[in-house]
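Schema walk-through. Below, the input block comes first and the output block second. Nothing else is stored per chain. Lengths vary across the set, and this one has 939 residues.
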Amino acid sequence: MDSPPVKPPRGVKPVKETSGLLMSVIRTLSASETNEQRDREKAKLEADYKVCDQRLDQLVSRHENDLTRVMQMFGTISQSVTENRDRVRRTKEMLQDCKRKLRCKRDELKALWMEGLEYKYMLQLLDEIEKMNNVPSQLANHMAHKRFLHATKLLVEAVKLGKDPLEGVESLKELSQELEQRKEQLHLQILAELKNILYTRPCQHILTLRRQGSGRDGFAVHSPLQRSIRLRVSGRNRSNVSRNLMEDLNKLRVQDLFSGTFNMEEDLDSLNIDDNHRDYVAILVKSLCLLEKLPFALDEIVREMQVSLSYIIQKSTHHVIDFTENLDSKLALKELCNVLFDQFKEVADMHLKLLKWVDKGIKIHKIDLKPYTLQYYWSQVQEVLQIFLSDYLDLQNMSNDLQIDNNANASLTGDISVYFSRRKQQTKKKVLFKFEGSSSALSLSSTLKSSKKDHKVLICLSHPNNILIVFIPFMCFIEDIENVLGMTHGSSALHQFITQHISTVYLKRKSSEIMEQIENASKASDAWKATVLLDLSSDYKPLLMNAVTVERCMREWKAVLHSLPLYSEKIAKYSVKALKEYKDTCYAAYRGIVQPHSEDRRICSAAWLKDEDINRFLKSLPNWLNLKTQQEYFARSERGRKVLKGQPSEEESPEDVRMRNRKEAEILASNLGEGGVTASEILSDMSLLKDLATLQESMEWFSIRMFQYSSEFRLEPLRLSPNNKKEESNDLMPPVSSAILHQLTSIAQEFDELANTCLLLLHLEVRVQCFHYLLVQSPYNKDSHEADLKVSELSRVLANVDEAMTSSLHPRKCKYIFEGLGHLIAKILISSAQYMQVIDEAGIQGMCRKIFALQQTLTNITMTRELALDHARHYFELFFQTSEEILNGIVDKGPEFSELEYMNALQLLNRSQKNKDSNSVTVHLERLSDILGEVGVTV
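--- output ---
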């Protein structure tokens, strides 16, 4: 069986195979002229029709079953349609019959319908009355589970029912009034819950986190913020629960917490509906909108915001006191600041959520209200923190002190006649009686004191130095606020308050205190006598108490610098001012030692040091350069406390020592050997020399500390905050101007120069006293007993100087003072031969005894044999020989002394002979010149 015919697709037209056949037949028949032609056409058409009939019969026979089934179905459908038509006709007839019957009882039905409506309305009122009766119990249940939105909707609906449909029900009037009162109280409860969510919950959350994350000690008082920045800083130094506000806002933008709709409902199955703060705040705001109390609630929040923030401070203070009672108050104060900053940030997040939902509520409920902004919240935080700082920094007393100081300064600059004017005597006012001692007054004062005490609880004593503890944490927090609010750096009110206080109050007060300490330390009666030993090591010597005091003051400035890194320029200026005053005092003390009279030229060594050429010459000598090299090395190694590799060796050969000290001895002998030194030109008082030694040691120690202090201002800039957000941007520590740095370094250099001057003076003074005692202005051997006394006196003086220097100076400096002294004494004694008139065996032995005595004294001081004095003794032993023997000895052994020294010896031998012959001495001198010329060596 072939498949049934298929409908051609839409848009496809079947091909018309016989469309033009009929027309062609008609044209053919009409155009034919004879019947034969028509018969042919007819026969042809008949044949074609037979073919079509055969084909049609074939198709019918092929599709017989389908046609039969179609016909059966058509008959069935036709019969069903006919039956349905009959049913519709009968239904119409029945409806028309009902209509006729209803018309007959219209009034009776209308009465029944009206009666049904009345019964329905009565049932509805009964249901509403029952609802009204159930409202108190349902409301209590909702309030017990903090389902404020359900309670609000229930109350609003109940109050509305009581006012409109059930207004006339006498039994519900009392209930309606009670529900109206409950409605008025509900918004206060919602407001209290909202304040709890805004302030109490975030603060408790922060305190809990800090207690859990701080180990045994409770709070995180050992957080990285304890190390200071150096802000400078900050550390930077945040607690593990501290969050950056900018990061929080970015999270809010990413997660879009407030993209949801305002049409949220409470979950009646949830036991802790307030766990989700975001939805809980939305529910509270929506409840206030339904109660039409949102404007009132926001006004209350704004009005009590500062009080709430102050309460946070007091509550946190109590918590920190409880958990840090055994710790330092400074650490506790810093911990309190960190806790408060974390809490204020958390509270800010809650205010931000509240404001977002308030905006949505205003738009949806079309409330004419302009809410407060987050900027207002941060302004209140800054005001509260200003009060907080005022309490801890004792600003009231500081302002009073400054006012007194200003009045004093004004009086000093005013007319001097004020001091001499007659002052009016103040008469005491007699009081008949007072109420201060009454029981009511005492009880009232105790109540006021207790209330005041409860209101202001401080974690530590109020003191201006507390700014050093809180400055870096506060500046980091201020930077967060400015970043959140999009403000320029330094434009916030809290930043201006702190900077103005530090610049105009704290630093000035600190400078006055330090200047007063320096003045008291340097101008006391025993300021330049009192000493202190900072280290018990053998090489460490006593220092002036005033130098130690001033250095402690500079360490105070250093601590201020580390705590207030943004004020390095001002701190440097105040430091320069203090150091200049102390430097002037130190130089005045030096002049008081070396200038006992009107002119210090009378002190030979001090006058010499004033000469720049001599000063430069002494500093160019090898012994001075060697000393400074060692001092620089040990200064780097913390004054010799650490043994470093590559330590410079102090071992030198005798020949090196002789060559190093010979030049100095020759220069001093050439300048002081002719005129001599009088008693008024030396410092004979050992106490003055000891004071000079103590001053030298103190100035050198102080200069090293001041170089270290000035280097604090040259450090790389430090960031204030610790976690590196642009943090820390609190920007970088501002650089100190090159002029101020130069002044600091120059002052430290001047202290070092004063120490060098004192050491050079001691070095030179010992040598000047050798000239004073060894060069006698009268004929040298006029009184041999007097010369022996002078040598003995010199030995005693050298021993006393050694004792004074050993107890006051480092061994290296003592070595510098006494090193080369033997060469100088030998040079003086050898040069004294030219002043002798005669010399005999007793005189030679006397000179050898003097040399031996001096050699023994110097050996006891330097702990080394003074070979230069052996050389001097050998020189005087030449006088046991004749001139010929001396000349022959030069030829045999070579020259041991210089040509001038040999000439002085030959001349003295000639003067000592009984038969003096001037020609013989000339011959001996000529031969000496020839011998030394041949040898070619001059010693």
